[in-house]
Amino acid sequence: MGVEIKAVASQLQQGLRLCVLHVELLQSVGATAAAWADSS
Asked: Considering Cα of 21, then 24, then 30, then 32, what sign does the dihedral take?
């Protein structure tokens, strides 16, 4: 039982990390797009 919970917890952690990476990527893309739109 304990091992199962650990496996699920690590999966959640990995998913959370991916979510954070996606958000950071979107933010940087958005910032770049905004800067590009301003300059053009």
From this structure: negative
